[in-house]
Write a structure and sequence with these properties.
mainly beta, Methylamine Dehydrogenase, Chain H, four-stranded antiparallel beta sheet, 31 strands, 46% strand
């Protein structure tokens, strides 16, 4: 439970009375690199206090389609990223209502920057788009296309993942400029690991690619293809989400090795819940799939399809983003989660 705040962030107390303090609140946590150990410990405390995550698919709401991925803003709203929709949609998670603004299309995924803005990643669009969440306005800059998702690195830059582009692109959010490096293509989504490296998920590529953000160099390892998005689990492993692959793949980031388990396909992105499980979003699959990361087993529940990406909100619910579905779907969770957890760069991106 949160028992207060001081200059360095939120202070927690577990059921045994032990005190735990997260590194700091947004946006100050970015300056302190938003340590993964502190994030996962705070997340686990929510479960240890009997706020168990409920695997219940609630009724859908609103009218929305054509979005891929979403980002939680400091104001508590979720911004859905328009791929073939024509405007940004905003989910007010306090009322479960949807509003729209601006003109934008051709983006896949977005990233929250320390300045509070959301950077939308251009897939078929030709420039990066920036949402000012304080005014709900959109601006664009630079020249870039062919990217799928992005990741905020410890150095404060956003790394865009190349799916049709041929190199990694880096956004300097202090100047809103773009640079590129390396040779890579065929990846869909990335994950920041505790070691500070970004792991890119292979969709049409044949191996996992790793960005060393301290040197802006790329290396590859293993054999894997057909994955869209990945999720960092409390055990430090990255779980790759099977889109047209037939099983879940696990990256051991301590050894850079890959293993697989289970049978699953047709999913697009996943979300880590406070119970330590990963919820995979059904794109062509017909139900939500749940990875128990303590046993590496998969179960399914509910009836849903046409979703690509999901977002964990401060109210404890997971919001599924409608790509071909016609409304937002919600996986019901616990009562509340502090913002400094759900805004973490490890959790809040696509």
């Amino acid at each position: 439970m949160v028992i207060g705040k001081d200059l360095s962030g939120s202070v927690y107390k577990d059921s045994s009375g032990n005190i735990f303090k997260i590194v700091s609140d947004f946006p100050e946590w970015e300056e302190n690199q938003n340590n993964w150990n502190e994030t996962k410990t705070a997340l686990s405390l929510l479960t240890s206090e009997n706020k168990r995550y409920q695997s219940i698919l609630n009724p859908t709401f609103g009218s929305a389609t054509g979005y891929i991925g979403g980002v939680l803003a400091p104001n508590g709203n979720i911004y859905m990223i328009p791929f073939n929709a024509s405007s940004v949609s905003v989910i007010d998670t306090s009322t479960n209502t949807i509003s729209t603004f601006g003109s934008a299309t051709g983006y896949v995924g977005g990233v929250l920057a320390p300045n509070g803005n959301i950077y939308m990643i251009p897939r078929s669009a030709s420039s990066v788009a920036v949402i000012d969440t304080s005014t709900n306005t959109i601006s664009t800059f630079g020249s870039a296309t062919g990217y799928h998702g992005g990741v905020l690195a410890p150095n404060g830059n956003i790394y865009m993942i190349p799916t049709a582009a041929s190199s990694v692109a880096v956004i300097d959010t202090s100047t809103n400029t773009i640079s590129t490096f390396g040779s890579a293509t065929g990846y869909a989504g990335g994950v920041l690991a505790p070691n500070g490296n970004i792991y890119m998920m292979p969709l049409s590529a044949s191996s996992v690619a790793v960005i060393d953000t301290s040197t802006n160099t790329i290396s590859t390892f293993g054999s894997a293809t057909g994955y869209v998005g990945g999720v960092l689990a409390p055990n430090g492993n990255i779980y790759m989400i099977p889109f047209n692959a037939s099983s879940v793949a696990v990256i051991d980031t301590s050894t850079n090795t890959i293993s697989t388990f289970g049978s699953a396909t047709g999913y697009f992105g996943g979300v880590l819940a406070p119970n330590g499980n990963i919820y995979m979003m059904p794109s062509s699959a017909s139900s939500v799939a749940v990875i128990d990361t303590s046993t590496n087993t998969i179960s399914t529940f509910g009836s849903a399809t046409g979703y690509q990406g999901g977002v964990l909100a401060p109210n404890g619910n997971i919001y599924m983003i409608p790509r071909s579905a016609s409304s937002v779907a919600v996986i019901g969770g616990q009562s509340s989660i502090p913002n400094d957890i759900v805004l973490s760069r490890y959790l809040n991106k696509f």
